[in-house]
Amino acid sequence: MKQRVETEKFYPAYPVFVLTYLNEVGEPQMSTGSSSYTLGDSIVIGVSAESNASKNLHAGQKLAVNFPNTEQLGLIEQGGFSSGKRNDKIKVHQIELTKSDNGGVAYIDACPIVLECTVTQTVSDADYHTIFAKIDTRLFEKNLLDSDGHFIHEELDLVLFSGDANERKFRQLDTKIETVGGHS
């Protein structure tokens, strides 16, 4: 039997990412998030309407979606728990950025997976800013690819975020992997 839960938000477990983008004067910025999904060459990202990312990400602008691994919890918290409106998180935390070879913004090379994107549209309301973007380039660490350039699922080590209005937690992916299909 199910029980009704009264909470203003709930995140069952989504991958944590760190956005890198430029502010209005062209300086690199970073923000941590966990609200996203991809579909083909598109990604949709949700951020707070009060966030620095909301202020700076609009149609036509470039951004990088950097996916840290479980050894980079410090990077995740540096991008998420200090305000980019009051200080330069990249300088304060000495985050090393790598210039894009593809015309995008600088990204965090230490992250094992990076998606270079172009914002196609945004939708805002009083609480949230939803960013729709085209994935221009997918960059993966070499250890995540086999000799044919195919993704090695067993090597994926992303941080997941779960939480509600009461508590927030980081989780890790399990090493148990099941092939899709054949479970009828």
TrEMBL record:
<dbReference type="Pfam" id="PF01613">
    <property type="entry name" value="Flavin_Reduct"/>
</dbReference>
<comment type="similarity">
    <text>Belongs to the flavoredoxin family.</text>
</comment>
<dbReference type="InterPro" id="IPR002563">
    <property type="entry name" value="Flavin_Rdtase-like_dom"/>
</dbReference>
<protein>
    <submittedName>
        <fullName>Flavin reductase family protein</fullName>
    </submittedName>
</protein>
<feature type="domain" description="Flavin reductase like">
    <location>
        <begin position="13"/>
        <end position="133"/>
    </location>
</feature>
<dbReference type="GO" id="GO:0010181">
    <property type="term" value="F:FMN binding"/>
</dbReference>
<dbReference type="InterPro" id="IPR052174">
    <property type="entry name" value="Flavoredoxin"/>
</dbReference>
<dbReference type="InterPro" id="IPR012349">
    <property type="entry name" value="Split_barrel_FMN-bd"/>
</dbReference>
<keyword id="KW-0285">Flavoprotein</keyword>
<dbReference type="GO" id="GO:0016646">
    <property type="term" value="F:oxidoreductase activity, acting on the CH-NH group of donors, NAD or NADP as acceptor"/>
</dbReference>
